[in-house]
Write the structure tokens for this entry.
Amino acid sequence: MKRKCETCTHYKCIINKYCSPEWKTLISFHKTSMLYPAGATIFSTGDPIKGIFQIYSGKIKVVTTDGEKEQIIRLAKEEQLLGHRGFGKKMIYPVTAIALEDSEVTFIPVDVFYSAVKANSEFAFQMMLFYADELNAAEKRMKLTASLKAKEKVIVALMTIIRAFGFSSTDNTLLEYTPTRKDIASIAGTTYETMIRALSSLEKSNIIVQEGKAIRVLDLAYLEKHCLLD
Amino acid sequence: MNCNNCTNKRCPINMYCLPDWLAYTQNSKSSLYLPANYSIFNAGELVKSIYILCSGKAKVMLEKETNKVDIIRLAGSGQVLGHRGFSEKMVYPISAKTLNESEIASISNEDFFKLVRENKDLAVYMMMFFADELLLSEQTFQITGMRTSREKVAYTLVRMINAFSYANNTSKQIDFGLSLHELATFAKISRSNFSRVLAKFIEEGVLRKHIWNYYVADEAALANLAGMEIQ
């Protein structure tokens, strides 16, 4: 399905917010859209960069791999950019993006994206700040990874999920999306077993409840207070 | 350094701003002349300006929770400093110190944002610069767990060459702006191990040593070991 920027109602989208109407029309002309089922790879580490992706609907995880070990470094949902890591001198993806659920992702060719950045000064400025925030977040993660205890890492992982996807619109303590336990361990940077133990400990303290695969947060203030990433 | 007739080809302001805006920068910037080992800004301070190293060398340090300080970046003439502070909080997450006598241009946030908004090429450059910094930062993080000492030393040398350029382009003399202790800190290995690898590189013909100076003898081999191109 063709998605048009000029009539889009995704008001948080950086293109919608900061590009001129003429440029939205031009971007729409060149933009393509693809459907990815859950588990499908959008791009892989080492692929050459041909453009930038934007999530129209769905949820995506961005992972780095070290041999067989996978670390989730970002969770993203609709209206967010994807594939910006790797823009620069090398123009090769240093990460892999995988759909967590059925997702629709749009793609803007790199030359159109560059032209839009050059022609829309506010867009360029906001892109710079977006990268600055990403750099900050990456370095906070690095600073803490070595020193956090397992439980603290799992709290950071839970807050990362909450900040990325929020709570259900019909049940405001239930996570809107609970990744698999394996993925939660991968966000936390711990083993599966350690993560399971940490979740049980949080459950015993009445901070969370595990309802099958889903997680309900009973004490958000506790998680926020103990999320050392802030 | 006068922005109107600056010849520094590595300075993004000089390379990507229109002549009128170079004049604007010249009138609005403050020039700081700092001695070696002088603090430029500290972690936790509010971000009020961005800095350009007109001449000299600097190191950027990240203090970890364990009170250990990691050198995460080296910057040479023409390079930007303090951009890591641009975030919602506008607080520096890192500290920067001069490595030798340096001239530094301080451009207020307001003026810098004006320059980025009004000079399209600078905006694109800054976006790509941040993209590269993000990539480098994540690579540096991976250095700890993933690399052998040889790769760590090669990576450190290439990062240093890319930051400071060669002291002599023809002979490819390395411009060591850091002490051996600091080089080892950057590489996250011991000083003795760093020295041993340097000696091994000389033996293998990757590096060459003459009196006290080191030269790159085989750029391709060094870049290959580092997993990073020499720019």
The first strand of chain B starts at residue 30 and ends at 34.
